[in-house]
Amino acid sequence: MSAQHAALYRPLEGDKAIRFIELLPGKPSNVISINFIYDTLLMRPAPTYEATSYTWGSPNPTKTILCDGIEFDLRDNAHDFLQQLRLPDRSRMLWMDCLCINQADAVERAKQVEMMYVIYQTAVAVIAWIGRQDESSLIAMDYIAQLDSESVMKHARFEMWDGPPGQVWGAPAGQRQYIFETVTRTEQDQRLIYAVLKLLARPWFRRIWIQQEMAVNENTRVLCGSQEVDLERLIALAWLLLPRDSSG
After folding, report:
1. How far apart are CA 120 and CA 114, in angstroms?
2. Mean pLDDT value of segment 187-199
């Protein structure tokens, strides 16, 4: 175990023991500061927290945050996520695997992975981070926010991730084109199509844990930079644009 991890983490006691982080309030220019909260999952009353979903990204570079007042090196993508989640005036209770699990302790890591289904199921919400915003993501997220996902679901049945990670059920090409033209409220042009396909090609959509993290909690939101949409809208768009096979 690294000296950094040894200084930060005290052992979890009990089969259902869990660590949360309290993300302390601050300004964008402030160093991110968190406190560890030790609790027991499934206790009554259950702790109120939000679970997170994201990609770890490259191990380098890192940024320094404060964990219980101790400096800790965090990967850039997780740091960006916390910076976006941080509120200016109040704390936020979160479960984030790169911090809430002692990654240097293989035994603890294995036990916590076994609990992940329940961790995501009992969270008040799941927040998925797909990365920083850019010019094309602004276009795509604006479009998704306007998408009439209920109308999409009226036209055909769909299921989430019943197949390879990062893919969803799709209708035959002709039906998808009809639905796309029928339910969209903004002009369909090449710039829009490029933007949404580029968004759906982000690494988060290829994560093997997506099915477990997303399917067990109905209150799931997707965050791209400062823009946020409901998962249902994003999946409706993926259903239209990402067929499971090329038939039809």
Report:
1. 12
2. 73
User: Beta-strand (E) ranges in the chain?
Assistant: 17-23, 33-40, 50-53, 62-67, 70-75, 92-95, 125-129, 220-224, 227-230
R_g of the chain computed on alpha carbons:
20
CB-CB contact of 141 with 224 (8 Å): yes
Q: What phi and psi values does residue 69 have, to the nearest 5 degrees?
A: 80, 0
Neighbours of 222 (CB within 10 A): 24
195-211 per-position pLDDT tens digit:
888 888 888 887 766 66
| Global model pTM greater than 0.85 | no
Phi, psi torsion values for 70, nearest 5 degrees: -105, 135
